[in-house]
Structures are given as structure tokens and as C-alpha cells.
Amino acid sequence: MTTDNAEVGGPAGAGAGDWEREPDPSDSLRTFGAVVQALREHGGLSRVDFGARVGFSKHTVESVELGRRMPDEVFVERAEEALGNTGALRKAARHLTRGEPGLAVWFRRWARLERVAVSLCTYECRLVPGLLQSEGYMRALCDSDIPPLPDDALEATVGARMERQRLLNERPRTTFDFIVEESVFMRRLGGVEVTRDLLDYVLEVVAPRNITLQVMPISSDHHACLAGPLQLLETPDGHWRGYSEGQENGRLIADSKEVSRLHMRYARLRSQALSPRDSVGVLEQMRGAL
């Protein structure tokens, strides 16, 4: 790939790496680009005219407007000045994020928060949480997807999930707490061999002191989270966020009252689930029975 600024579309002296085409444009890039285009057209400027004002090529302007390129600070500042200094572009630019192949669009914001969280809490009733999945289990999940994933999308998904799992090794001072339904481990997704490897993997992953797994037994008379799976995390500045997910959608929850309700449910569920030691014992028994 050439690093010539004329090809890249940046101004003189701009770093070429900042202007590489995004392999998987994010929603925030597309939204920012649409705002730039709307303001430009409202001002009666063509892409050529606007490019001349901000010192970027017509092709770069087009790429930004279509969400294909991540604009740098120079572009944002010049575009802001050329389009009325409303502050809209500066504020919107703070929320720009790159796309992440292999992760669902609605999950990407949560995945970014995970990387800086000081505490992560997860309850799952459908499948083994992504951070605890073995590669074989991941592939079995992808194989079960409908409509079937193309080979390249499958590999991207597995790769992204394995990359995300680095959190467990790279953040030893972050606490990771998991509550998973016993029935999830009983489902032999992918067959006996995959399930055996999964249980071995989970038992190994939850061994460190900062990682806790509790199994929610099928025989429990009480259940605080029948509304579905949930996740909670604490940011470095002490704020808590929640996340809930369904089919083809996910929701990041910042409202303090909603997050508080999720906290109460999770706390009650922890008291209803098996202790970490007993949970490990249950998984060991399952493993021995295979």
C-alpha cells in the first residue's frame, strides 16, 4: 500500500496510517459521516468545494462521509470551522470508534468498556459466556448459526472472541464474576469431545483468584434473574454500566435506576447460586461423567 499523502487523501504532513480505509466501518463512523454530509449540503458546498476549504481531497471527504475512514483531529477541526462552528462535529467526534470484525455491531461499545473495567459481572442462561468459551465451543456455536456464516466470517468471529479473551490474562487486577446456569454446561453442543474440552478449559480459566464462577443449579427453588442474561461492569471512575442482549440486538444501560435494579438482581442471584468451590465440583463431576 502506498503511503503517499495524495493517495491517502490527507493533508501535507498527515500520517498515512490515520487514513487507511476502515475494513469494517462502525455505526459511529457512518453517523458522523452523515452529519458532515448533511451540514456540507446545507451550506451549498460540493465535495470539491468543501475539500478545498478543509485542505483534504474530494476522495477523503467522500470516504469520511460514507464512514469508510476515521477522520483525524485536523479534519474535525477544519470541518467544524468550515461548517458553522456549531460544535456538533467536535462533540460527535468524541464518540467515534472503529469497527471490530467478528463482534456483533450492538456488542462493540460494551466490548470497548470491558477493556478498561475494574470489575465485570456476567449472568448467562443461554450459552457459556464468551470469555469462558473454548475454541471448539466457539466453532460449534458458529456452525449452529442460521443463516450459516461464510468461512471468512466464521474465522473472523472466532478470532475476535479469542482476542477478547486476552482480558482475563492481561487484567489480573480486574475482578471477573460469572454466574452460569447448570443446564448450559449440560447441553453437549458440538458433541461429547467439544464438551469435554470446554469443561477442561473453563476449569483452567476460573482458577486465578480474580476470576469467580458460580453455577446456578437446576434444582433451585428461587431465581432472581428470570428476565434473562445480564452483564454489569464498573469503570475506573467508579460508574457502573449494564448490558442486556437478545436476538439481533443488545442494549447498553447507563441509567442509574436501571443499573441499580440489575445490581439487586445479580446480588440476589449470587446468594442463590452454588458457591465457587461447589460450582467447580459440579463441573468436575460433569467432566468425569463424559
Structure description:
It is built from 14 helices and six strands. It has helices at 5-8, 27-42, 47-54, 58-65, 73-82, 88-93, 108-114, 135-144, 151-164, 166-170, 182-186, 192-205, 256-272, 276-289, and strands at 119-124, 175-181, 211-216, 230-234, 240-246, 249-253. By secondary structure, the protein is α/β, with parallel strands linked by helices. The model is unreliable at 1-19 (pLDDT under 50). 48% of the residues lie in helices and 12% in strands. The longest helix is centred in the last third of the chain and has 17 residues, at 256-272. Helix 8 (135-144) runs antiparallel to helix 9 (151-164). Strands 3-2-1-4-5-6 form a six-stranded mixed β-sheet, with helices on both faces.
Helix content: 40-55%
List the uncertain runs: 1-19
Widest beta sheet: strand line-up: 3-2-1-4-5-6
Largest sheet: 6 strands, mixed
Number of strands: 6
Strand proportion: 5-15%
Radius of gyration, Cα only, in angstroms?
A: 23 Å
Cα distance spanning the termini: 52 Å
Series of secondary-structure elements, N-terminal to C-terminal: HHHHHHHEHHHEHHEEEEHH
**What is the averaged pLDDT score?**
87
Structural class designation = alpha/beta
Number of helices: 14
Query: In one word, what is the shape?
Result: elongated
Question: Mind sketching the topology for me?
Answer:
Layout (H helix, E strand, L loop, with lengths): L4 H4 L18 H16 L4 H8 L3 H8 L7 H10 L5 H6 L14 H7 L4 E6 L10 H10 L6 H14 L1 H5 L4 E7 H5 L5 H14 L5 E6 L13 E5 L5 E7 L2 E5 L2 H17 L3 H14 L1
Helix pairs in contact: 3-4, 8-9, 8-12, 12-14
